[in-house]
């Protein structure tokens, strides 16, 4: 009798079945990782947009002066504790209009630039435009201002508190955030 070397049909079927199961699990895991990576990149892009927006706000506020919260005469400096609007005189080196004011406002009801958006006006409130991406929904935003009285011993300071959610349109995942930023006026006011 000659001994034959090789695999039987049963052994081949079992080997192919095992290989198929391992490959199915591996491809499923790979596709899941690719999807999770896509979601993470989309959320990171949205959060980067929010961080850049807040950094620009803080830079503008830090270089500005004559902070005013709330409504009323926006050219008169005023302290506040938790208002949704902040007006200030922007930095200007030459040919400046003394009454020029920028305003940042949280739009809770859609009256400025869209519900749940952060809005900016560079012409004392005549026109507002959104400065946050549509994928960012702000649930609450408050400005706290101290030290606006000229000649006191406190340098003017603005604290910004933002809470909300962010999620990209392509993915169904959202993440909540709570950010606080502080801007101290650069122009000495002691």
Automatic annotation (TrEMBL):
Protein name: Type II secretion system protein J
Matching InterPro entries: N_methyl_site (IPR012902), Pilin-like (IPR045584)
Keywords associated with the record: Membrane, Transmembrane, Transmembrane helix
Keyword Transmembrane helix: yes
Lineage: superkingdom: Bacteria
Native source species: Candidatus Kaiserbacteria bacterium RIFCSPLOWO2_01_FULL_54_20
Membrane-spanning residues: 12-34
Lineage: Bacteria, Candidatus Kaiseribacteriota
Pfam families: N_methyl
UniProt key word Transmembrane: yes
